[in-house]
Specification:
The chain is mainly α and 177 residues long. The protein contains eight helices and no strands. Helix 6 crosses helix 8. It comes from Salibaculum griseiflavum.
Length: 177
Amino acid sequence: MFDTMTMTKVLGAFCGTLLVFMLGGWAAETIYHVGGDHGYGDGPKQAYVIEVADEDGAAEEVVEEEGPDFTEVFASADAGAGESQWRACRACHALEPGQNMTGPSLYGVVGRDVGSVDGFNYSGSLSAVADVWTPENLNAFLENPRGYAPGTSMSYNGMRNIEDRADLIAYLDSLDN
């Protein structure tokens, strides 16, 4: 049943399969490996370092660098650039007074009382966090709506760039003089 030719075929198939896997691994390592020396020696550099406690048990204090103050950024905001930021808001909000869509009209929103647009059903969490939509309140809300007002029905994930938020608020503020 098993003669020399059958055993040679089985051994050849095994060696061929091993060769294909080894060449595939080498090709994948060459194509997808980022930096370092391909895992030999000291190894690749770490993307980030996790701080651990010293021998005495005290962890080093990590000092986070604060970004620029919003009032300074808002003072130099460009309303023209804010008009291009409006694209993200346009899907749910209108700029015409009294025209509500999924969200309330944003005409005159800067300086307006929170939850004061007639005919729009606000979620209760908004009125609990602020009384008036000041530029600072709008900045905090636009950065992370669900974090600023937990339970809000606004599904927007937020605008991460502080300059973009300042430009958008300056644009909204310029609409109603």
